[in-house]
Amino acid sequence: MTAPIHPDALALVRHFEGLYLKAYLCPAGVPTIGYGRTAGVRMGQTITAAQAEVFLRADMAAAAAQVDKLVMVPLTDQQRGALASFVFNLGAGALRDSTLRSMLNKGDYKGAAGQFGRWVYATVNGEKVQLPGLKKRRAAEADLFETT
Fold it and tell me: Which of 26, 53, 127, 146 is catalytic?
């Protein structure tokens, strides 16, 4: 059995994703509902707050399972939760190919924590721009990662 997701990580994702009970198109044009769920979502779909919570826990468990596969060093529940939020938002490939993961797997926890802040860019109209919301989210993830 895998470890549960730390409550602070769930709260972080709830805060940054927001709750949407009706499907909408995210900035990338993907149908999204609840707290950032995209799997199987169709426009016009509606859910309850309870369903959104079930989806969030399932999506974060899936993200944490990817963290468990990619990280070879021991993690606290907070570190695992912060990384699950990162994977939930950016995908497992971002963690897999990151300097953050490389440093972490070498045991450089402090260096890895410093890498969250590099993941604050998105492509908007063909241009790479820093997004304030991503900057805040990565700072919150880094803070949770460094919580002892």
Answer: 26
